[in-house]
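Entry 14. Ran structure prediction on the chain below.
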Amino acid sequence: QVQLVESGGGLVQPGGSLRLSCAASVSAFSFYTMGWYRQAPGKQRELVASITRDERTDYADSVKGRFTISRDNAKKMTYLQMNSLNPEDTAVYYCNADGRPLFRNYWGQGTQVTVSS
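Output, structure tokens:
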């Protein structure tokens, strides 16, 4: 059974940093595009950052220059380094593994990030 398990969320003050981690049990991990999404209360889930199998990255405009996505294929891990956090970054952050069309699309259970003084 495929699992994506996020960790690293928590409460941080404005201007602070957090590093999210996503551990994947999916086979053929290196073939997946990995992504981080977030959903704030009352808002739709949105893409934060993604990284393809050849490590091309894409970021939401709101996080460019502050967040960095990376992956370690040997460890089947995906990371999201978040710097200069502000209250608007408060949300549940979800890890996503998109293997389509050859494989399926998977979601983690989410980790809460709260930015508040």
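The longest strand covers residues 91-98. Will compare against last week's run tomorrow.
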